[in-house]
Amino acid sequence: MAKQGTFAKPHSTPILVSACLLGLATRYDGKAKRSQAVIDYLHRENLVPIPICPEQLAGMTTPREKTFFHSGDGRNVLAEDGHVISTTGQPMNDVFCRGAKMVLQVAHLTHCRCALLKERSPSCGVHQIYRGTERVQGVGVTTALLIKEGLDVMSEEDL
Ligand code: SF4
Questions:
Q1: pLDDT tens for residues 54-80?
Q2: 73-111 per-residue burial string, b: 16 or more CB within 10 A, e: under 16
């Protein structure tokens, strides 16, 4: 018989983690990008990963079209002076902003104050993104919103 109100209360800290880094096949190409360094880090630091994929949360399919910045980066998209587009030229700002807001909602629900996100993604990039085919300094749209809201964000390449 199930007991009521007896869930264990672990003394560990929740952290948002890009789902693809944990081995979930959430990427645009239908694949994962599992990182053993990330898994080891979470264990070592006694962190509880909260898997998030802003693009799936926004309702995008998997697989889906690849996307990149046409101008600016995530901060510019939030300020409505940058653009994310798909490879066929579809404007993606609204979808990416929706995904970012949903991730922020998850952060509030789970009391996360930090995030470990996938470098160079147009949603999750922390230090770099792609503008066209060029790799440039900048943050993804979700990263920009989390930083704006005061969360600490790092990428798998910071470990
Ligand atoms: S949006 Fe983020 S979590 Fe989702 S597949 Fe891309 S990098 Fe991974």
A1: 999 999 999 999 999 999 999 999 999
A2: bbbbbbeeebbbbbeeeeebbebbbbbbbbbbebbeeee
Q: Which atom of ligand 1 is nearest to the CA of 99?
A: 1
Q: Which atom of ligand 1 is nearest to the CA of 21?
A: 8
The CA-based angle 43-22-34, given to 5 degrees, is 110
Q: Is 23 exposed, middle or buried (0-12, 13-18, 19+ CB in 10 A)?
A: middle
Contact 17, 38 (CB under 8 A): yes
Give bridge partners of residue 17 from the DSSP assignment.
51, 116
Kind and range of the H or E run holding 76: helix 74-78
pTM for this prediction: 0.95
Residue 98, pLDDT above cutoff 70 = yes
In ligand 1, which atom is closest to the CA atom of 18? Answer: 3
Confirm or reject: Cβ of 18 under 6 Å from ligand 1: yes
Choice from 27, 60, 142, 156 to test ligand 1 binding pocket (greatest atom count within 8 A of CB):
27
From residue 32, alpha-carbon distances to 3, 20, 91 in Å are: 36, 5, 25
